[in-house]
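hi! just following up on the protien thing from before. the input was this:
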Amino acid sequence: MAEQALHASLSAGRWHTLTLNEQLGNVGSDVGRAIRAKAHGDDMRLQGALERALELLDLTLADDRWRGPRRREISRAREVVCDFLVGDNDYASTGESLDAYFLAFAMAARRDR
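and the predicted 3d structure came back as:
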């Protein structure tokens, strides 16, 4: 059985019509949900939110508009999110630092409207 996209309408192409600020701001929503689930020890909610966030990050990485330093930053953000939520937190991230990182993109997207 083929794996179904969690964000079906976005993976069908709509994601690539969003700006980078909009994309990463949306990623931040699921990252925030995962952070809250982790803080409450809710592994099921954590896994679901993390899967959605990673799917959106992967869609962003697949967007041909983001090359060079942008793609490297997106890739590093994905690495840091995984490190904090399910890894050893080698980057010494906090839920607050990750929320702040992604919130900046959401605020910029709102400002750009």
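The chain is about 70% helix and 0% strand.
The helical segments are 8-11, 20-39, 43-61, 69-86, 95-112.
cheers
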